[in-house]
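Severity: low
Component: inverse-folding endpoint
Summary: output formatting inconsistent between runs
Steps to reproduce: submit the following structure tokens with default settings.
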């Protein structure tokens, strides 16, 4: 029996699947990078902009860790 996530994933290609950080919303790391690059650097803002962390919450830590790493590595504010 398929669940909602299985149905969602059928429309996603393998490159996108690898990039998905939040399976509830299908949010990818690329989408989060774009929002950070636009200046959103807090979890609530990322959640509102992408839908990440707005379902079960299982990805919260992973999204935060990804954001911290990306911001510390690539953000112009970190210099
Ligand atoms: S996996 Fe992100 S909210 Fe469920």
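Observed output (run 2 of 3):
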């Amino acid at each position: 029996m398929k669940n909602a996530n299985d149905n969602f994933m059928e429309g996603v290609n393998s490159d996108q699947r690898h990039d998905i950080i939040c399976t509830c919303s299908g949010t990818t790391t690329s989408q989060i990078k774009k929002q950070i690059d636009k200046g959103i650097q807090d979890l609530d803002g990322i959640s509102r902009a992408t839908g990440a962390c707005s379902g079960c919450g299982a990805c919260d830590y992973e999204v935060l860790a990804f954001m911290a790493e990306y911001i510390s590595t690539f953000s112009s504010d970190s210099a």
